[in-house]
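WARN no homologs supplied; continuing
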Amino acid sequence: MTIKTANLGFPRIGRHRELKFALERYWTGRASRDELLDTGAKLRAESWAAQKARGIDILPSNDFSFYDHVLDTAVLVGAIPPAYGWKGGPVDLDTYFAMARGSTGTPCASGCSHVGTDSGNPALEMTKWFDTNYHYMVPEFEPDQRFELTHNRPLETFLEAEALGYRTRPVLLGPVALLKLGKAKGDDFDPVDLIERLLPVYVRVLTELADAGADWVQIDEPCLALDLTDRDRRALDLAYRTFATEIPRLKIMLATYFGSIGDNTAAALALPVAGLHVDLVRAPQQIDALIQSAPADRVLSLGIVDGRNIWRSDLAGLFRRLQPLVSTHGRDRIELAPSCSLLHVPVDLDLERALDPELSSWLAFAVQKLDELSLLARAFEPGLANPEQVFSASIDAARARLTSLRIHDPLVSGRLKELTAADSKRHAPFDTRRRLQAERLSLPLFPTTTIGSFPQTSEVRQARSLHAKGELSYVDYVRYLRQETEQAVRWQEEIGIDVLVHGEFERNDMVQYFAEQLSGYAFTQSGWVQSYGSRYVRPPIIFGDVSRPYPMTVDWATFAQSLTQRPVKGMLTGPVTMLQWSFVRDDLPRSVVCRQIALALSDEVTDLEAAGIAIIQIDEPALREGLPLRLADRKAYLDWAVECFRLSAAGVDDATQIHTHMCYSEFNDIMPAIAAMDADVISIETSRSKMELLGAFTDEAYPNEIGPGVYDIHSPRVPSVEEMVHLVEKATDGLAPGQIWVNPDCGLKTRRWEETRPALVNMVAAARSLRQTFAAPAREAVGA
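OK structure emitted
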């Protein structure tokens, strides 16, 4: 019997980002609800066809989402906060997108929401999906939470696939994972305690699937890769014993990923499920435990192709490593699969017409990863005299990459060897730096600033496109960008922002812009992956040693500073974020690659300072994202991540102010590391949580200055002055007024000027109101 191949999930965005454009047309009233739904149906059909054509035996359904699969699951079970006005029954798209993006209450013709200044509802909180760069919407749970099935979407898509001739295995986010990913509202309680109330909804969904003919269902419980409590394990046991009792005819593939199940192995193997999927890319050591402990009748889905990176697999090595398990467990109880959903990788390498052929030969995107699974399964077919002949192309690519002269730079490795502990330390402690910076900058109480970027309008994007096509000369392109920059600087001065930014109109992406100017990076044209909703990114590829051939931002920063007497921030993306938001080479430890990037950025920081830039912001929104899932592994990561940030910043004088920015993270478990970064000012996302995330900083008595975001830039809402004043006043419950900056949650690149202008005008007005409320000497008292 041939080993089966399975896929856990396929990219939902479309080969040409069809979902993005359909969503944005709908949100702006240029497309109807039916047109959006039709696009979704077409993308699902194309996904099933592509997977079937690549020889995949087990296709997923219900892996598609119009925004986020965690939000979909919360909506499925009726976990909808009262503020959204849901009265029961199916949830319409307006309510769904209000939970995702916020709403203003002003409907457009197609049923979406226009931007306005009325209050509306804010969106749910958003945070990182485990240690990936995908963002999910955080469900909210009350102590008296009630659940109900709103509409059986998994059943609907299963039947949709059947009508097209595809037999699928529906995918659901597991009940324990859903509760653990959610947020407790109201009294202090653990959402996992709601498991008994939630299970009847899951039982109904699964029963209806079984009644419709589904024989297998994939239920994802990635929480099994976390440190679980006894309460969590009891909830898992209750859930899957309930399913086994209530729907015994339905087989469950319990899927874990993103790490080792480790000390949860015994609990996972004891659950009454028909199959178990494990991530053998992130945790290859699990294979030994499976050989020794897996029940003989358990189907094992082996995640052996990397669902989170784009390097071609070593198929010959995988074949040899899997042989003992296949021999022990039997071909009929083995499935070969990606390590996780392919949501995290681009769709198809064949779209990359301009990518360097040598580099392209080392890569595999989602479609190519399915090819790899099919090849590996073929090698296990009985009777093959030399199975590894199947992998000849894979073997040739691995050898070529290993011996390529493009990968290693002795100057970079030599510089790393010369580093000492002093290279990652500022000269003076914060209190001394703060006084020197206050003298240099002369900022008011509650200084206002933005995070860096301003709206990338269609005109800006068109100019960039025309320049890339050779239809707009370099001189004319730079002239246009300078005009945009000058207008942004003048407007900030006009409304009274204290610390300005140049707007970043020349930048395509906060990582790609820098990566394009560093050696060791390569880039795709169509390598899009979803970050959240309709926000997609093209992660650069780190294939070799990283260095900075020439200054990257100095000209734009000095040009903007020449236009004003107010300080203009130099804007850089930090080394950890440059690492995390790239596809990283897998032939060096990530810590080594990060240090290479940090050294390149330190050259830029010192050049900015030498050019007269008094404030330099080094953004690290991905620092929390890289945190290992297990507590035991975190210290080592945080040690080198903090070292890399400090290495990038430590070369400046004490009077130069270093800022950093983080967003959409749970900060509590990394507060010592954030303090150890020793940035003079940190700005963070706090508006969606109504300053609750700030508690981590106040509980730990964060000593430096901080800008808690006062409005959510991912929503079209324009918050009122009073709303922002209220948030900052809440911040003063735990912070001294002299510590607090006033700024948005994040950069404004994705917003429109029609939203940005009134929001920032209100923000400045809020800061002025606060200055009247609080005594001016408060700023001087901090750190004295």
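The first strand starts at residue 4 and ends at 5.
OK
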